[in-house]
Design a protein that fits this description.
heterodimer, A: 451 residues, Glutathione S-transferase Yfyf (Class Pi), Chain A, domain 2, 4-stranded parallel beta sheet, B: elongated
């Protein structure tokens, strides 16, 4: 196995540890990498400015690798997305290809579409394989919860990148789990880290990062694992800056996948560049267990599978790792409130939420699998609405109140409160108490009351 | 007399030029902060810094850098063997010639008792060094004019450098060839050193010299008698051989003498030797006098730059010294083009015809800027764009053979230019990631203003977006705009949109706000609709366009296969093109 290693611009300049760790890991796995000196920028940042410049820059890299008859392996997901996209476009569009080649010919290069572009994770999963990876491990982690951050450009647009299921991916989780760490389920997992807007709209960029990191932390992760230098810089450098600027009170350290894997393979820390991360990673060594390796896969752990290819073909039956009904854990507060006001409704909702595992596994009656996001959007909405109604009921038990006062106390919009009141009246849980100077007040009804 | 005056004049001009150049290092500034540092402070800080470094552990770093980078040109060797060989030939050969030959009276004579330029090894070495330099010049010509390395540009200063060296060397070698054949010189030397009176003896000696030493004589010609030659040899051994090695040792000059043999008598008659001597000497003196103003100044500035680079670092070095260094570095640039050849975005020049994308050309423009030259608005815009179209990958800085801190230079010049107030649309791309990381290096206002200006310029050009709650007439659909949306071959998919709003609901940016429409203007599905309606202003004018993360959630979820993200990319490109075109039209020039 030999690939042309494409580093891009960000890694050699700002995330050198990703390069050194990847080289060490690939060397230990006997994957040969060749450095092509003439590689240039993949063109990703220029795509906002000039489309043809972006295609030309990517095409030049593809042509250089083709000249040496090597597939490209890249560590950065933005590079991966750009090179894949350019490859895709050039294969489809002959006039674009000719135009690009007329420029490349000046340097004695030619794009013919003969090579493929792969990401590090793809190579590790498909070409090296889970079994081979497990053989190389000398230690494993124990009790280490990790938030796997896939990143955007490795999953989408799925027609072009064809890496994993874009809606319910598992490859990165599987790769992390062979090290013994377990990946937590977090609703924000497939969201963007916000890096593309750093420097353009910093507030928005940091808000998006914050959401992700908070979610990961809340659900118990000790580290967030990434496979892209931009994501890493966002979660490492930018998070550290937010922490230093007192915008965050706590840090979720970011670790690059080869660093995580490398420690289990017994690769030297200096080579992995652990000390180069801004947010310290020393704690991770405490999770390394001294028990022998490799561990035998226990029940319920995923086995290497064929990756779902969205283009054509029947979906194959495959056992998907089913995580605990996250939904129940996630909305436990809301469910508590609902239960306190209406136990019957709470039971109904619990039964509904239990369906989550089924929907993520087999799917609904049409065999459509739901993604975590879809579940969040549909179920979450229901649970939140009912929780709000339950809170309104609770407040009304204390005494008759008007819509306006309820809105202020519960921090909701008056129209929302009114809509809830209407529904609760329909259910005979709330009744009109009296009208005070043209403002109606309501009260909670006990069962049996007519109001 | 004339010669002495010329030499002193050349030295004086050289000295004055040198002083002027050094003065500019302390006077001029590149970055914003450095303008405020007074001249005296900069001078004193430099002295303090130099003394401190020389008497510290860093001294050994300086020695190492001097040996490997300055003398042995290790940085060039790391990049390209041919270029290293070329430079070693030129600079090594030239330095040795200057020391051994030009200054022979002072240096070689002091070191060697028997120094004479016509005696081996000096005789041979002079030609050897000369040919070495010419080999280097030949390689230089080959690199720049025959190899046709893409994006390697050659300007007037490069031409001058090659020409002056070539003229000095070639005139010297031809001069030597002419001297070898010159009968006048032979007679002069004979008179001064042989002291013979007998006509027969004179004839014998001359015959020997014609036969073996390449002299072309009008009187002694044709096949020569063996006896006469034998006598000549005896006389030669007695009078001449002490100072004269065989001319074949001076192989270059000798080669020339063989070629010019047919014309030697004629050349002697017109005293070609004297003319050539003048050409040779004046080429040297002109080279010397003009040195501080030409590319050749790098022989002084480059070693300084390399040494400074080895021991200076942003954050730890005195800001006054950093300011001085930034100006000094510009003079160290030899326009070798290494940075350009290795630039990550250099290839984009084919599509974005702005020569300032290339690092070596950026530097040329920055030199002009630093010297206070007035650049036109077009030139400033081009420079600003070129300096911004950089991914900050650091490669140019790592490979620069003279140790110029290019990355720092770009960063500082970028901010200086942005403060002038010309809108820069490249800011609205991930090229600004580095700027975002370097936020702490500048004031909040200076950081935000250029971004707001760029966004505002685009928004200002979209008339229809300015007034909310109006009825937009749809009869004037911009056909041209709709037709333009096809660059990426997927942008035309907007026509499949049926307004289900899945894209908007999947968008994390939209989800981030309680009232997204207020902040973002138009939402993704509305932008798609604007495209379908052909209302260009609405498509270009919303903040959503520039706040798009390109995370592809919308495109992935769209049930109609509308490539939402790709359309947005296309709109970004078209918006910039449209607005730049409009503003240059407003300035009365076409794009």
């Amino acid at each position: 196995m030999k690939y042309a290693l494409f580093l891009g611009c960000t890694i050699p300049a700002r995330v050198k540890q990703y390069e050194s760790a990847s080289r060490a890991v690939l060397k230990a796995l006997n994957v040969g990498v060749v450095d092509i000196r003439e590689f240039n920028c993949c063109g990703y940042p220029l795509r906002n400015i000039d489309f043809k410049a972006f295609v030309l820059l990517s095409a030049r890299n593809l042509a250089l690798a083709e000249r040496d008859d090597l597939d490209i392996i890249t560590l950065c997901q933005c590079c991966f997305g750009s090179l894949k996209k350019a490859n895709h476009l050039l294969k489809e569009d002959a006039s674009l290809r000719n135009e690009v080649n007329s420029h490349l010919e000046k340097e004695g290069l030619r794009y013919q579409g003969g090579i493929e572009v792969k990401h590090l994770l793809e190579v590790l999963y498909h070409d090296v394989g889970i079994a081979s990876l497990q053989k190389e491990l000398t230690q494993m982690y124990e009790g280490l919860p990790i938030a796997a951050h896939y990143g955007c450009h490795i999953l989408r647009p799925s027609q072009v990148v064809q890496f994993d299921d874009p809606v319910s991916p598992t490859i990165f989780d599987q790769l992390i789990e062979i090290t013994g760490a377990h990946t937590i389920y977090w609703p924000q997992r497939l969201e963007c880290c916000g890096a593309p807007l750093c420097g353009i709209n910093d507030e928005l960029s940091m808000d998006l990062s914050k959401k992700k990191l908070d979610s990961g932390r809340q659900l118990g992760a000790e580290y967030v694992c990434v496979a892209c230098p931009y994501c890493h810089l966002q979660f490492d450098t930018v998070q550290e800056r937010m922490f230093a600027g007192k915008q965050r009170s706590d840090r979720l350290p970011s670790i690059l996948y080869p660093q995580l894997l490398g420690l289990c393979m017994g690769i030297d820390e200096k080579a992995l560049g652990l000390e180069m991360n801004r947010i310290p990673l020393d704690g991770i060594k405490n999770f390394l267990s001294s028990r022998g390796c490799p561990r035998v896969l226990s029940e319920g752990q995923p086995v290497a599978q064929e990756v779902y290819r969205p283009l054509g073909g029947l979906k194959e039956e495959r056992p998907v790792v089913v995580r605990e009904a996250m939904a129940q854990q996630h909305w436990s507060n809301e469910m508590k409130v609902i239960r306190s006001q209406d136990p019957e409704l709470a039971d109904k909702l619990t039964r509904l939420l239990e369906k989550e595992a089924l929907l993520q596994g087999e799917g609904n009656v049409y065999h459509e699998r739901y993604s975590s996001r879809q579940i969040e959007i549909s179920f979450g909405k229901i649970v939140q609405t009912e929780a709000q109604r339950a809170r309104i009921l609770k407040a009304l038990r204390k005494g008759p109140t008007s819509v306006k006062k309820l809105a202020t106390t519960l921090k909701l919009a008056p129209t929302e409160v009114l809509a809830h009141i209407v529904e609760l009246r329909r259910r005979n849980r709330v009744g009109l108490h009296h009208i005070e100077e043209r403002t109606p007040t309501y009260i909670a009804l006990s069962p049996g009351d007519k109001g | 007399m004339f010669f002495t005056i010329s030499v002193y004049l050349a030295l004086a001009i050289f000295g004055a030029g040198l002083l002027y150049k050094v003065f500019t290092w302390f006077r001029r500034s590149i970055s914003i902060g450095s303008c405020e540092i007074p001249l005296l402070k900069r001078v004193l800080s430099t002295f303090r810094g130099m003394l401190y470094t020389l008497f510290s552990a860093k001294f050994f770093t300086l020695v190492r850098v001097f040996i490997f980078d300055v003398v042995l040109n290790a940085r060039i060797l790391r990049e390209d063997f041919l270029r290293w060989f070329m430079h070693m030939c030129i600079y090594g050969g030239f330095v040795l010639l200057v020391v051994m030959h030009a200054l022979g009276q002072y240096t070689s004579a002091a070191l060697f008792d028997n120094y004479l330029s016509t005696i081996n090894p000096f005789f041979f070495l002079r030609d050897l060094f000369g040919v070495l330099v010419l080999v280097g010049v030949a390689i230089a010509l080959y690199r720049r004019f025959i190899l046709r390395i893409p994006r390697l540009f050659t300007n007037v200063r490069d031409h001058y450098a090659i020409i002056i060296v070539a003229v000095i060397l070639l005139s010297g070698i031809v001069l030597e060839g002419v001297k070898i054949t010159s009968h006048t010189i032979y007679q002069q030397m004979e008179r001064d050193y042989a002291g013979l009176e007998d006509a027969q003896e004179l004839r014998a000696l001359e015959a020997y010299w014609v036969q073996h030493y390449g002299v072309v004589s009008p009187t002694v010609q044709g096949p020569l008698d063996a006896a006469i030659l034998a006598q000549g040899e005896k006389l030669h051994n007695a009078n001449c051989v002490v100072c004269h090695s065989r001319p074949q040792w001076a192989f270059a000059g000798y080669g020339v003498s063989r070629i010019i043999r047919p014309f030697a008598l004629g050349l002697d008659k017109v005293d070609a030797r004297r003319s050539l001597w003048y050409i040779h000497i004046f080429a040297c003196l002109i080279g010397l006098a003009y040195l501080p103003f030409s590319k050749m100044f790098h022989i002084i500035a480059s070693p300084l730059s390399l040494l400074a680079n080895a021991v200076m670092e942003r954050g730890t070095s005195d800001p006054a010294n950093i300011a001085t260094r930034q100006v000094m570095e510009l003079d160290a640039c030899t326009h070798c083009g290494t940075c350009t050849v290795r630039c990550s975005v250099g290839a984009a020049l084919e599509e974005i015809p702005n020569i300032n994308i290339l690092p070596s050309e950026k530097l040329v423009a920055i030199k002009a800027l630093a010297s206070g030259k007035k650049l036109t608005e077009e030139e400033l815009k081009a420079l600003q764009e070129g300096v911004y179209l950089c991914t900050n990958c650091y490669r140019c800085t790592v490979v620069c053979p003279v140790g110029i801190n290019l990355q720092d230079l770009w960063f500082n010049v970028r901010e200086v230019l942005l403060r002038r107030g010309l809108p820069e649309f490249s800011l609205l791309s991930p090229l600004s990631f580095y700027r975002g990381l370097m936020r702490k290096e500048m004031g909040k206002k200076d950081y935000e203003k250029p971004l707001l200006r760029a966004k505002k310029t685009i928004a200002d050009n979209c008339e229809l977006m300015k007034t909310k709650d109006t009825v937009v007439p749809l009869t004037s659909t911009d056909r041209a705009f709709k037709d333009r949306l096809h660059l990426s071959a997927q942008a035309s998919t907007f026509s499949g949109c049926f307004g289900c709003q899945t894209c908007t609901n999947a968008c994390p940016v939209v989800a981030n706000y309680k009232k997204p429409q207020e902040i973002l203007g138009l939402l993704p599905h509305q932008i798609m609709h604007a495209c379908a309606l052909g209302v260009r202003d609405l498509a270009f004018g919303s903040a959503m366009l520039w706040d798009c993360l390109t995370c592809y959630q919308c495109q992935e979820q769209c049930p109609q296969g509308v490539s939402v993200t790709d359309v947005l990319y296309e709109l970004k490109n078209l918006a910039v093109e449209y607005v730049s075109g409009k503003s240059s039209q407003a300035m009365g020039r076409s794009r």
